[in-house]
Amino acid sequence: MSAALGWDTGRAADVRVRVLGKPGCHLCMDAAAVVAEVCGDAVAWDEVSITSDPELLDCYVDEIPVVLVDGAVLTYWRVTAEQLRTALQARS
Fold first, then answer.
1. CA distance 57 to 13
2. What's 52's domain CATH number?
3. Residue 6 domain flag
4. Strand order in the sheet with 72-76
5. Residue 3 lies in a domain
6. C-alpha span between 68 and 13 (Å, rounded)
7. 86 CB contacts (<8 Å, ≥6 apart)?
8. Considering the domain boundaries, does residue 50 fall inside one?
9. How far apart are CA 92 and CA 78, in angstroms?
10. Are 38 and 85 in contact (CB under 8 A)?
């Protein structure tokens, strides 16, 4: 399962990669585009807006986007395709 580029596409339990961000954030859109490219249809991923969850908003308001792989923070602000591929391979 892969998500479309849009926020709050749901929180599926089986996602491997999650992008935390918010609508209108250009860095968040950039991160989601990299994740979409790397994950394609082979790796489940989604996007969650921190504005939909007060706890996430409190925790990450100054650090978005946040990219998580298997629930662990991979990076804040920017992600590269190489960085994400390496993380996915290391956790396979």
1. 20
2. 3.40.30.10
3. no
4. 45-49, 17-21, 66-69, 72-76
5. no
6. 13
7. none
8. yes
9. 22
10. yes
Write the secondary structure of 45-57 as one string of H (helix), E (strand) and C (coil). Answer: EEEEEHHHCHHHH
| Residue found by looking up tokens 């923070």 in the block | 73
Which residues have CB under 8 Å from 59's CB, separation 6+? 50
Q: How many domains does the chain have?
A: 1
Phi, psi dihedrals of residue 48, rounded to the nearest 5° = -130, 130
Encode pLDDT of 11-52 as tens digits.
Answer: 555 789 999 999 999 999 999 999 999 999 999 999 999 999
CA distance 51 to 40: 26
Span 46-89, pLDDT tens digits = 999 999 999 999 999 999 999 999 999 999 999 999 999 999 99
Q: Which residue(s) pair with 17 in the sheet?
A: 45, 69
What is the reported pTM? 0.85
- Write out the residue range of the structural domain in which residue 35 sits: 17-90
